[in-house]
């Protein structure tokens, strides 16, 4: 009897616990949870309902609190990032200590000052970019594979005992030291724009890509990183660097250092070299047969460049005034010798060819550019005669023709394989178990547990997102695909040439280092943000209307062949220029967080959304963009912004510039204004009756008057030591009102 009572009591407790309502103070967060997970329709979230949830994704509105998240004990994925590019979200703290199953945590673009993941042993991905963190400890997170903590205030980052960590971005912080001893699996590391004095990458023996530029590095050890393919270590204080064991290196940027010698003789795979602004006396690239792009500008000490035989450089850029000797082994790249022979390069005093067996004697360079056509007698001369520029030119043309033939043979072979796939009726091989399970569950129409060629060809749309896939081998047999969603996986390569009818592709948030869309002329929508691509070719996608390529580390982007483009999002890359002259249909443009010094948008009559923040712009003209509703030009070097022609402007951010004057009197539709951290001495918003949000701190204002702004709910005017008086209307209740403690607040 006693035993039965105990069992009954325990059951009652369990029933009570499951029926208990979870307290969720944040009204917006609660509304989202109720809409998504309230299975009994009572307008609340019970403990049982919370325990059944595996994924929460709330990014549209700023959260003030995540309280209540502790009840979601089975939660595996939490995304509380704030997607608004104008401002940070409201989260100042996050507690995931009661979420032991958590595998993915994304809390980007908030105001977090600390994060504790010591209770999250299953954590695989942590994204906490663009917060206010000063320290972060992920030690002992053995399952952690991806850590993105860039753009914080980190002075301390601990990554001890993280054996699975393969990708880490801790750039744009204040780190003075970075210990990689606990990260043996690291393959991709970006620690640029910190305060590092030394960096030892040797513990990460499999490292393939390293970005440590814009630090204070006096030494850099990459000797044990034999797999290193890409190294950006520019803008440091290096006087030497040993690359003798980095035989896989194909892209090196060591510009803006103090190097007096650069030995790349062991780097035969090198295709691109940037070594400008150093102290080199001589540069020898005769052991680099794959080199296509060489930049060695602004080196006054450089007097000689040594090039390889027959090399066809795509780009060869150097300060000709300093180079007096242009030496080659046997014979140089034809185009470059001919170019140097022209009168426009009188500063090249000597071409050293004394080691060339094909030359009886070194002829003056200038004679090469003015050589007369060959006679029959000249053609009959022995091979030891001094070859003219004409002869060299035709030899080069022959080599180019051979290269074209080889490329054509490769294309024919690939087309033959595609043709055989299109008619294949056997069983499709799918090595990835997760991918095969998905395909069988979704498209196995005959129920035999396999996918046939016919079943694959019948599919026109596929959504395999968020399945943790490492490979989609076998996808090529789905040749009728028009739409593919494969975002939020771990895919490293995607070749879309098998899908000629493809119209939409979303492959964002993978680990792609290769994406081929050259054979997809019908492609309309492409989203490939948050990958490791570096290069993206959309020159053969004339129908493209939307392109999302944020955060893929692009150095160049060519959209001149995409005249139908309506939305372009290429933020958070390394673009120094962006040509959108042919993209007159653009409605949305996000090119924020790049290195742009010039941006022309005056021809974009239909432009509605422009985010060019975080660049190096000194001027921006939006006077002809009459439909502009959103403009963010913050964090540039602008001394003036004229929005007097933008009557539709609703959201305007110009923070972090050099503005001493701002006129928004005519912008009566303005809802949000961020003019913080400028040099403003006065600000008149009396005619902006629709204004709901105003950030004006960090200026030189003595008075802020918002008595006419009865819809204003958010006002941030601190810190601003100069502010003496804040005038507010009596009848307004603010969700946030921040002002200096010494300021006088007058309600009228």
UniProtKB/TrEMBL annotation:
Q: Which InterPro entries match?
A: CDIRP, LRR_dom_sf
Residue ranges of the region described as Disordered? 364-386
Q: Which keywords annotate this record?
A: Leucine-rich repeat, Repeat, Signal
Q: Which domain of life is it from?
A: Bacteria
- Which SUPFAM superfamilies does the entry link to? L domain-like
Q: Name one GO molecular function term.
A: signaling adaptor activity
User: Which spans of this chain does the record mark as coiled coil?
Assistant: none
**Signal sequence span per UniProt?**
1-19
Put simply, this protein is called EF-hand domain-containing protein
Q: Where is the organism placed in the taxonomic lineage, from the top?
A: Bacteria, Pseudomonadati, Bacteroidota, Bacteroidia, Bacteroidales
């Amino acid at each position: 009897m006693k035993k039965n009572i105990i069992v009954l009591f325990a059951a009652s407790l369990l029933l009570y616990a499951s029926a208990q309502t979870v307290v969720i103070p944040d009204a917006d967060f609660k509304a989202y949870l109720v809409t998504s997970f309230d299975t009994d329709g009572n307008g609340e979230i019970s403990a049982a309902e919370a325990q059944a949830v595996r994924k929460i994704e709330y990014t549209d509105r700023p959260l003030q609190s995540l309280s209540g998240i502790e009840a979601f004990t089975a939660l595996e994925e939490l995304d509380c990032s704030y997607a608004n590019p104008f401002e940070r979200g409201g989260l100042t703290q996050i507690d995931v200590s009661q979420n032991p199953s958590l595998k993915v945590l994304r809390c980007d673009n908030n105001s977090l000052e600390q994060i504790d993941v010591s209770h999250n042993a299953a954590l695989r991905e942590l994204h906490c970019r663009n917060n206010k963190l000063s320290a972060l400890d992920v030690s002992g997170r053995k399952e952690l594979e991806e850590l993105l903590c860039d753009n914080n205030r980190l002075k301390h980052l601990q990554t001890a005992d993280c054996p699975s960590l393969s990708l880490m971005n801790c750039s744009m912080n204040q780190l003075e030291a970075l210990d990689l001893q606990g990260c043996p699996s690291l393959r991709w590391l970006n620690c640029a724009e910190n305060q590092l004095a030394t960096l030892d990458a040797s513990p990460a023996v499999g490292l393939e890509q390293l970005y440590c530029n814009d630090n204070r590095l006096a030494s850099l050890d990459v000797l044990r990183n034999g797999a290193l393919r890409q190294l950006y270590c520019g803008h440091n204080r290096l006087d030497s660097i040993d690359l003798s064991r980095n035989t896989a290196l194909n892209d090196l940027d060591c510009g803006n250092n103090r190097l007096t010698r650069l030995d790349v003789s062991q780097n035969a795979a090198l295709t691109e070299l940037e070594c400008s602004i150093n102290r080199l006396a001589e540069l020898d690239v005769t052991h680099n047969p794959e080199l296509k792009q060489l930049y060695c500008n602004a080196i006054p000490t450089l007097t000689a460049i040594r090039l390889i035989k027959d090399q066809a450089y795509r780009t060869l850029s150097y300060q000709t005034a300093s180079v007096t000797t242009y030496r080659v082994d046997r014979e140089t790249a034809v185009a470059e010798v001919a170019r140097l022979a022209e009168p426009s390069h009188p500063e090249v005093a000597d071409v050293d060819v004394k080691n060339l067996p094909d030359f009886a004697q070194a002829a003056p360079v200038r004679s090469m550019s003015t050589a007369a056509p060959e006679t029959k007698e000249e053609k009959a001369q022995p091979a030891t005669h001094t070859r003219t520029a004409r002869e060299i030119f035709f030899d080069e043309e022959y080599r180019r023709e051979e290269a074209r033939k080889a490329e054509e043979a490769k294309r024919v072979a690939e087309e033959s394989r595609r043709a055989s796939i299109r008619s294949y009726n056997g069983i499709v091989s799918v090595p990835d178990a997760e991918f095969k399970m998905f395909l069988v569950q979704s498209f196995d129409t005959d129920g035999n547990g396999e996918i046939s060629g016919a079943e694959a060809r019948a599919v026109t749309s596929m959504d395999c997102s968020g399945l943790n896939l490492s490979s989609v081998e076998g996808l090529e047999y789905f040749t009728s695909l028009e739409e593919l969603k494969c975002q939020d996986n771990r895919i490293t390569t995607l070749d879309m040439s098998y899908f000629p009818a493809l119209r939409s592709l979303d492959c964002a948030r993978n680990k792609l280092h290769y994406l081929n869309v050259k054979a997809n002329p019908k492609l309309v929508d492409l989203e490939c943000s948050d990958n490791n691509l570096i290069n993206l070719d959309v020159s053969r996608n004339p129908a493209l209307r939307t392109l999302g390529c944020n955060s893929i580390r692009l150095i160049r982007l060519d959209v001149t062949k995409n005249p139908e483009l309506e939305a372009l999002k290429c933020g958070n890359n390394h673009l120094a220029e962006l040509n959108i002259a042919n993209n007159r249909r653009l409605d949305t443009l996000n090119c924020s967080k790049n290195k742009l010094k010039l941006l022309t948008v005056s021809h974009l009559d239909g432009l509605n959304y422009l985010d060019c923040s975080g660049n190096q712009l000194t001027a921006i003209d939006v006077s002809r963009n009459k439909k502009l509703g959103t403009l963010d030009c913050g964090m540039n070097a602008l001394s003036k912004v004229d929005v007097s022609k933008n009557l539709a402007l609703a959201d305007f951010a110009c923070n972090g510039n050099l503005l001493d004057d701002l006129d928004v009197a005519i912008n009566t539709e303005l809802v949000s204004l961020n003019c913080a951290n400028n040099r403003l001495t006065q600000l008149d918003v009396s005619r902006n009756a629709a204004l709901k949000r105003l950030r004006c701190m960090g200026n030189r204002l003595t008075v802020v008057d918002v008595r006419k702004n009865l819809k204003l709910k958010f006002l941030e005017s601190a810190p601003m030591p100069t502010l003496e008086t804040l005038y507010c209307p009596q009848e307004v209740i603010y969700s946030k009102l921040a002002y200096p403690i010494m300021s006088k607040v007058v309600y009228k």
